Amino acid sequence: LDSGSVEQARARQSQLTKPPGSLGRLEEIAVQMAGITRSVVPVVQRRAVVVMAADHGVTAEGVSAYPKDVTPQMVLNFLSGGAAINALARQAQSDVTVVDIGVAADLEHPNLLSRKVRRGTANMAREAAMSQAEVLQAINVGVEVIENLAEQGLDLVATGEMGIGNTTAASALTACFLDVPVEYVTGRGTGIDDQQLAHKVRIVEQAITHNAPDAAQPLDVLAKLGGLEIAGLVGVILAAAARHIPSIIDGFISSAAALVACALAPTVRDYLFAGHLSVERGHRLILEKLHLEPLLNLQLRLGEGTGAVLAMHIIEGALRTHQEMATFAEAGVSNKNA
Amino acid sequence: LDSGSVEQARARQSQLTKPPGSLGRLEEIAVQMAGITRSVVPVVQRRAVVVMAADHGVTAEGVSAYPKDVTPQMVLNFLSGGAAINALARQAQSDVTVVDIGVAADLEHPNLLSRKVRRGTANMAREAAMSQAEVLQAINVGVEVIENLAEQGLDLVATGEMGIGNTTAASALTACFLDVPVEYVTGRGTGIDDQQLAHKVRIVEQAITHNAPDAAQPLDVLAKLGGLEIAGLVGVILAAAARHIPSIIDGFISSAAALVACALAPTVRDYLFAGHLSVERGHRLILEKLHLEPLLNLQLRLGEGTGAVLAMHIIEGALRTHQEMATFAEAGVSNKNA
Question: Does the model's ipTM exceed the 0.90 cut?
């Protein structure tokens, strides 16, 4: 973060007509945004949520409550504006960029970015989900998406995803990077019962045992246990940080991508905001590991970028108070120490 | 709450393109809003934050970090648009209604509602803060403000306040209604140190002992230990509920008003949303007593209605997803049980 901008933003906060610190995290957000953007009074105009969609071979093991047909069906729902992310993006005046990075179906739509790396991952319970070349290609898709948005003047990006089976991949990645038992980081996803949850834990354990990823090699772990949409989001997060654009991370799957990105480049963490705390049990552990405090806690577990886009209002509130409030001198208000 | 609207709103939620329950509290909010407004798909157009301002005689005891001149100075700041509440209200497209219900200074401004009941309360450490007649008059001011806003089509109201010394009054009310030791519910307000905090606790204890309010008589407690702005907000909360208008309660002081309102009319609680959890230590206890879960937790402690207005975006997100999302049938998405 740019320390000059951070210091000047802090100095500005201390002059605004409120008791010092009384806006709590809004003050911290404004200061962090100043450091990210290298602007003492940052503004956020262009916003986008990047929704990466892909399928997961591991759904063959019966780990999800929904059939994998739902992935392409929901992509079409995003494109026709009928999903939760569309409603919340309209509210937040955010663009929605939908990317087919690996859906296991043929999809065509004028507003769809078709960047299919392959038709879904392989079944990680039996083989590596992807090759190293495919992982790099998927990361590059995310980088390219951000490069294009940045050229149009992107100020703030939210990460979103869709992929039946992707909490299974996120659990495997999280167990591996945090070195914790699989059951600590495996939840009910879209809504499986106790028996199905026990089965999902076994499948994730099998995937880790069978693939034996090297936790010190983030790309090896990502290739063996990840997903195409997760790799794409790694690219989004890395490229946004490189461009000094803040990212709001959504829930468990997006946070697994953030975990990989921070393993590759630890300073990226300073460019991240955690949009919310998901119900998925592994999510809290990832946020603790990354020292990120969620902005919202509304028991969401939908993904798509919903919690991240809802959190855009908090970031905007922080920037509006930082920018628009009068100083003690301007307003003729007595300061505490005056 | 209207049970027909609640049931129909629940039925609608189960048809929207998402796993059941995956929007967490957003779903609950939409259903509660349906019950409050008696509309299956409620819309929130006109929003207002009512900021009640008044002074407190107990500031003579040195309980606050700021001089009481700050009350009228901040009222003028609200009226010229330079306070935190103005910035956040502009973001949320909310009107700001500023009411002088008892500032101890002469204030005039075309946009100020001048409804002064008296020039600040008496010093509750030595006598009752107000008479019963004054309490009723202050409650009536709040009722009248809501009646006028409702005639213009108010859909959602946030409670706000300004008054140097008013955390002291809120602590006294809270200790009394919750029957807990004063130190459990007395915090640092605008920023006092340990020694000043110990003094503040003693002053609140003295106020309770000296006035000996009858906890079974909410108006007696309010008169002896309350504030004019707190009484005004009691009127706001009661009148909004009577008109089927939801209220978003801000922090500690607003919640003390909600506590009084619910003591007078327990069903009012169903019409309330807790905007956020304040740093003021008594706040959590009030919310637990009222069984209200805060929508935000951002370590705010400013008051003015800031946390409540910021929470308007969460309510809007709940209503937008409820209204705008496609159903499984509309979008051609496979349902879990299909």
Answer: yes
